[in-house]
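User: Hey, quick favor. My workstation is busy. Could you predict this chain's structure for me?
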Amino acid sequence: MSEELEKNDRGDLFSKSVRAGKRTYFFDVKSTRGNDYYLTITESKKRFGAEGKFTYEKHKIFLYKEDFEKFIEGLDEAVNHIKENAPEVESHFSAGEETEKKSSDISFEDLGN
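Assistant: No problem, here it is.
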């Protein structure tokens, strides 16, 4: 599900969330005060604590335009290594559940432009 956001005081320009199993990834395009764009990638995972209460554990990285090409090259190299070398593993999903996207289904070409 993709959702474009109107620019607000924090500089949010675009947001895309991707549900993948127990995790959700957020890709947020933001703007600096100088109107320079950058990307934040956030991994959010629901954690259950004491007394049945839950919290969200979040990890965030900031990716700037000047780093897009090198980031994409490194990510592509790592994904290809996994595709070529990782042993086959059975899916953790039942037939009716949504499966995780394969890395080959994801395009990073637009980030590099």
